[in-house]
């Protein structure tokens, strides 16, 4: 029976190869390697082949053939997942289906403020194309030079502009999806209003490829900002950050694009390990906020003056200790480099246990106090690198091994430390995954925090849409 099954699988794989051609079918070890390894090196899986269809019809036919033969599929975009969602397991017996060849922008409707794109489009390319059409696509994150929009949609990616524009879920109007039986749901509608039953696209956004394969999407565009004002602000602490955020939103007519919290340790790591970085402030401070305001007004609406007045008043009230306002784009880029390279700068400092959590914005300071105290008690000398999108309550609560500590001994306490942090997050009504998803990293842990009713609903949806369980098996559920 096993031999018969292998014959069926081999025959199916040959049919897939004939369908996509040699350009779309990879079995050579060196060419497969980038698709098998999680980018941080935490996991390395295996697969029978990497299949790269050229269009939606080929995706659908590949999925249909796999469904008939019972061959599991791991959908993959740029393979930048931070939770192991885009790589196969070590004992995986199926194929990786890469969307990399599907990278066309199908249409741009400037007056509807939309563009229709294929799943393999690199995020930075979409930002550029929108700008070339005098429009703005606001999704922006550290991996934008290699991540693909299909993966962004499948993980409901966040990034630095969520405060003003929302997560990826808020940036999509329609989807095209290859379902687990090989049929295609054609939902590429560019409508802001469509009240005709269940909003099916939201099933697939954030599902991490477990319900189907996103092949194309209609994305929202926005007016292109004409001015940006960026400042690195030293503050008295996290409580001051929350107050400053509220004031900034009011003073700028809700024009706050980004509001990133950074403790001193972020600066110390980046300045020590990242070339061409400099502290824009003349002395050391314990806490900082990277604040950016933007405007789409064709005329000068006094944005710079608004920022200056905001910071001066906050300084008078003791919230702001010092501030550097970027005088040009180069200075703004230098400030952003300090923020965007924090994770990279952590690597030379040794092992780290990372958390992507969210709590209500108003409770971020409380979370930091409680979590800092709890992890310091558990691991004396632990170095807390808690930074990120405080404007939407999302903190990347990364913990570095104590100075001179044993990396392996520290990582061996991963589950213990996770439980400490995540229990606090849950107690505060937060989420243990704000923007990275569950993948395989948090698949089991989520069952501790979601109710039995929620988990059962998710399993029912998965069972109904993917009854054979071939779509990204072992992820999320």
UniProtKB/TrEMBL annotation:
The keyword Flavoprotein applies. This is Putative FAD-binding dehydrogenase. Residues 43-224 form the FAD-binding PCMH-type domain. Keywords: FAD, Flavoprotein, Oxidoreductase. Pfam families: FAD-oxidase_C, FAD_binding_4. Its cofactor is FAD. It comes from Oceanibaculum indicum P24. One of its GO terms (biological process) is respiratory electron transport chain. One of its GO terms (molecular function) is FAD binding. It comes from the Bacteria. InterPro entries: FAD-bd_oxidored_4_C (IPR004113), FAD-bd_PCMH (IPR016166), FAD-bd_PCMH-like_sf (IPR036318), FAD-bd_PCMH_sub1 (IPR016167), FAD-bd_PCMH_sub2 (IPR016169), FAD-linked_Oxase-like_C (IPR016164), FAD-oxidored/transferase_4 (IPR051264), Oxid_FAD_bind_N (IPR006094). Belongs to the FAD-binding oxidoreductase/transferase type 4 family.
């Amino acid at each position: 029976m096993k031999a018969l099954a292998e014959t069926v699988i081999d025959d199916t794989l040959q049919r897939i190869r004939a369908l996509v051609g040699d350009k779309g079918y990879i079995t050579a070890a060196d060419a497969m390697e980038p698709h098998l390894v999680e980018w941080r090196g935490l996991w390395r899986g295996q697969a029978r082949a990497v299949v790269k269809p050229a269009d939606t019809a080929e995706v659908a036919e590949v999925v249909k053939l796999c469904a008939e033969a019972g061959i599991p599929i791991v959908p993959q975009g740029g393979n930048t997942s931070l939770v192991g969602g885009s790589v196969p397991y070590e004992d995986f017996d199926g194929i990786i289906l890469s969307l990399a060849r599907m990278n066309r922008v199908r249409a741009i409707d400037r007056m509807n403020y939309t563009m229709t794109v294929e799943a393999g489009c690199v995020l930075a390319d979409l930002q550029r194309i929108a700008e070339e059409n005098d429009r703005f696509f606001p999704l922006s994150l550290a991996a934008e030079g290699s991540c693909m929009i299909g993966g962004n949609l499948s993980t409901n990616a966040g990034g630095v502009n969520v405060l003003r524009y929302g997560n990826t879920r808020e940036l999509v109007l329609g989807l095209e999806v290859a379902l687990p039986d090989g049929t295609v749901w054609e939902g590429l509608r560019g409508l802001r209003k469509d009240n005709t039953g269940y909003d099916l696209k939201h099933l697939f956004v954030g599902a991490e490829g477990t319900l189907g394969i996103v092949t194309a999407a209609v994305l929202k565009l926005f007016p292109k900002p004409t001015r940006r004002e960026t400042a690195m602000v030293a503050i008295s602490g996290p409580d001051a950050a929350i107050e400053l955020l509220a004031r900034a939103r009011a003073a700028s007519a809700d024009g706050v694009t980004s509001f990133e919290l950074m403790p001193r340790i972020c600066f110390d790591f980046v300045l020590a390990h990242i070339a061409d970085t400099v502290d824009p402030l003349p002395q050391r401070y314990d806490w900082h906020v990277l604040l950016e305001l933007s405007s789409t007004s064709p005329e000068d609406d006094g944005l710079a003056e608004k920022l200056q007045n905001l910071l001066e008043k906050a300084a008078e009230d003791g919230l702001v200790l010092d501030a550097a306002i970027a005088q040009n784009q180069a200075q703004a880029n230098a400030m952003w480099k300090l923020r965007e390279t924090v994770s990279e700068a952590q690597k030379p400092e040794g092992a780290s246990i990372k958390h992507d959590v969210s709590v209500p914005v108003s409770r971020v300071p409380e979370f930091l106090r409680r979590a800092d105290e709890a992890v310091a008690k558990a691991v004396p000398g632990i170095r807390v690198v808690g930074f990120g999108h405080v404007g939407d309550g999302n903190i990347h609560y990364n913990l570095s091994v104590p100075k001179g500590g044993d990396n392996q001994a520290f990582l061996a306490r991963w589950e213990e430390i996770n439980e400490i942090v995540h229990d606090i997050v849950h107690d505060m009504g937060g989420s243990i995954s704000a923007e990275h998803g569950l993948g395989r990293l948090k698949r089991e842990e989520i069952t501790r925090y979601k109710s039995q009713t929620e988990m059962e609903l998710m399993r029912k949806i998965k069972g109904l849409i993917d009854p054979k369980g071939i779509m990204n098996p072992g992820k999320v559920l």
